[in-house]
Every structure is written in C-alpha cells, then in structure tokens.
Structure prediction request, 324 residues.
Amino acid sequence: MSKVVAVAHPNIAFIKYWGNQDDALRLPSNGSISMNLDGLHSQTAVEFSAGLAGDELQLDGGVATPEQTQRVSAFLDLVREMSGVTSAARVESQNNFPSGAGIASSSSAFAALALAASAAAGLELDEAALSRLARRGSGSASRSVPGGYAEWRSGDDAGSFAHSIAAAEHWELADCVAIISEEHKATGSTAGHALAGTSPLQAARLAGAPGRLDACRAAIERRDFATLAEVAELDCHLMHAVMMTSQPGLHYWLPASLEVMAAVRGWRAAGMAAFYTLDAGPNVHVLCPESAAAEVAAGLAELPGVLRVLRAAPGGPARLLSDP
Ligand code: DP6
Prediction:
C-alpha cells in the first residue's frame, strides 16, 4: 500500500468546545464555531505496511512518546475497522508552529491524520464522514476538516460533525497570536474536558451556548465584527471561568496573558476593531480585520511578556498532497 500525505490547518474557536456528553466518542456537550488558520499547518504521512510489528509514530522528526503513539494507534484502529485493513502503519507528522501552548495542534494533527490514514487505507470518505472520524481523534479536529469558518454540531455519533458556514474568502479576518509561552501545558484538553462537569458554572455555560452559537453564526454571515467580538470574548471568559472553578481548578492564564487582554480591551475602547480569545494555554489570539493586522501585530509585539507574534489568515480545508 502506498504512502499518503495530507495537510490540515489548526483552528481557533470563537465559541468553545469544553466538556463531553460522551468522552470515548468525543460527543461534545455544546456546539462550537471556529476559523481555520492559514499559514499554520500539520503535515502527516501515513503508510500501512504488512512488515511492521506495530504502529510507529514520528512527531516533528523525533520518536513520539508511548502515550502519543497509543492515542494515534487507537485512532488507526478505527480506520482499520472501517476499511478492513489489518496491518500496522508508519505515521510521520510535522507542525510548522509550536505545539502544546494554546494553538490547538491536535486539531490540525488529527484532521490531517484522518484524511491521510483513511485515504491510505483505500477509504473515500465525504467531508462529513471525514469530520466525524477526525472528531474521534480530537474533538476540535472535526472543525479543521471543512474550509474557512466551521460549525461543529453536538448530537449523536452520526450527527456530530463540522461543516463550513462560510468559505475562507467570505471575510478577511486575521488572527495575531501573541506567544507568551511555548512550553507544553500542564493539563491537556482531554483531561480538562473530563473535569468540566465538576464546575458549578458549566451548566450555566451550556444553557447559554445555543444563543451564543446563533449570534456568532449570524455575525460571521453578516461580517458584523462588533457582535463577533462581544460574543467570542464572552464565550472565552465563560470557558475559562469553568476551567478555573473545576475541581481541581485549571488556570491557563499567565500575568502576560492578562496584560495582552487588558491592552486589547483598551484598543477596542479607543475605536480599534480587535478582540481576544484563549484556548487551553496562555497564548492570546487577537482577531481583527486583515486591514488592521499590521498595526495589531506591532502593538502586541511591544507588550511585556510577548515573545513573538504569529499571524494567520482564514484557512482552507484539509487536503491530500498525493494520491493513494
Ligand atoms: C480549549 O479538541 O484539544 O481548544 O478532543 O481531548 O483532543 P480533545 O480536545 P481538544 O479541545 C479543544 C478545547 C479548546 C476549545 C476549542 O477548540 O473549541
């Protein structure tokens, strides 16, 4: 069987996924909406080979940890089940951005793996089936399969996948990511999702999620930046409030994260179109119209504690680089 290579972009969520109805199936407690990030990507090669004793995983040129290999192997089992392929696989994956610090590298990694592994196993999955498969590897990966702005619906196994609500070209936003730490986070998302239900605030967060999804979807459709800014910052604060009040509490913000957040609120009060959102890490994603990105990136680079600034535009769907 031949080697297949796929590429996918990570995504940044405006309405966050935090907590599952079913951890094993990664069925989320609420729907979420995100934008793919062009310029950042995971590139993953998969080859099933009868000669291998077990699945092998290389990450960024080095041998993966047993935990990482186990997670990929469990995912490959799903592909083997669907395709009837029985052999082990060699997987090589590379990110062109720092992993583990709030830029969801698992989103692009499992979207690229889902596409490369299913194609290498001879499966021809449509976008919904591919998104559903990617979801099983990492929830947010479901949203890196379709292009542009994507919504992932909660639901049962068959109904929980992401689709594009607007193409990348629909709205020229920029994500200026203020990098504050490149260290691997202490508690990963998977462990975090399992704690969400221990926060007394999770029920309130979930009760308001349908309304925030509607507002976010409409803001994207109308290119209404002010509404998007308001609903995305609120949703980010709600998720972090749940994280902080879980037992044990999860605290991802660093002092420099708060400095950046305060600066962005100040810029917006002074009339600049910009808002922030943070995932499970200290880095701050600052969203603005592409026309303001140079000014926002320069402003961020001057703030104390900001190591560097990455810039990304709306990105396309996961895609194959070679045919099986
Ligand atoms: C905070 O998709 O990384 O980035 O399914 O366990 O891999 P797993 O979780 P993951 O969770 C993402 C959480 C988030 C918010 C979001 O991207 O919606």
